[in-house]
Amino acid sequence: MDESAFGSRDRRGHWKPFKRISYAPLFVWPFRPLPFLKWLFGMQGYIFSWNLLFASLSVVLWLFLTPSMETMSTLSVGWIAFIFGRNAVLMLAWFGAFHIRLYVKRTQGGQFKYNPNWQTQKSASHLFGSQTVDNLIWCFGSGLPIWTAYEVATLWMIANGYIPYLDFEESPVAFAALILLIPMMREFHFYCIHRLIHWPPLYRTVHKVHHANVNPGPWSGLSMHPVEHLLYFSSVFVHWIIPSHPIHALNQLVHAGLSPGPDHTGFDKIVFSEKSAIDTHCFAHYLHHKYFEVNYADGIIPLDKWFGTFHDGSDEAEKAMNARLKKRAARMAASRT
């Protein structure tokens, strides 16, 4: 597959797609039903994309890889350790598959890779000087136990009737609607906490761990400070308030736990053959890692456009970003005098 048919490289070898980043046709007026339906049901659209995979995986986990409600009504080491081990295997298989294919075997070389350079293995910004080792330590040492703790607490409360329960047989439409809404709820929550941890005091003490990955790879996605993990996985709190089924809570956590993998590959496409490839849809977040103060959300809800932090990859957007940052620097300088 020829990458030059989809984008171009600058003099330093950085690749960017011809197609500019755009938002879903959800908040466009007048409403256009055909583009909306194409986005909703089209291949690699809203449903038939990573979202369907994460939702399906959540169903499988609930049916076959989660203890019974009776077991989970009492906190015990056995079933908690099982959930911990199951999540560890999920993380290792999911992030590891992207990492091995793209960064160890380098199956497609640098084709469709935004940054022509490979990850640093000798860097003072990372633990033990290795970006991969650093990422693995944060993922498994912090992300995995915090993900598991939120899941265990949620399942235990559902099993004991402490939080509202939504039964599929009684409310199939509400059940399905909530599944559809989870990616959007996740994005809204992510935008809010993401803006929060870019507040300078929190950025310097917390979020800089994640942004040490200027040239991200799959394991960079869940490489975060424990405080950021606590905030990030707290999106499951919505299911402590609204009536939900365990599948919804699992989907919320699986989406949060696994979606950073493709979002941080650093590749625009994963190529399987000359005519077959999967879009990662990660260019917007790659630009966030590159420029730090753009594209805080994931692209379903136009939050960045509403709040003036949107970057679509164009030269015009870069000029607008630089002008905005220059004005802000001038205001800060004026406030000091």
Summarize the structure in words.
The protein has 337 residues and is mostly helical. The protein has helices spanning 33-41, 50-64, 69-72, 77-104, 131-159, 172-197, 200-211, 226-232, 238-241, 246-258, 260-263, 283-291, 303-306, 315-336, and strands at 7-9, 15-17, 269-273, 276-279. The strands form 2 sheets. It has a two-stranded antiparallel ribbon. A two-stranded antiparallel ribbon has the order 3-4. Helix 5 packs antiparallel against helix 10 (246-258) and helix 6 (172-197) runs parallel beside helix 10 (246-258). It is globular, with a radius of gyration of 21 Å. The mean pLDDT is 95.
Quick overview of this protein structure:
The protein has helices spanning 33-41, 50-64, 69-72, 77-104, 131-159, 172-197, 200-211, 226-232, 238-241, 246-258, 260-263, 283-291, 303-306, 315-336, and strands at 7-9, 15-17, 269-273, 276-279. It has 337 residues and is mainly alpha-helical. A hairpin with a 5-residue loop joins strand 1 and strand 2.
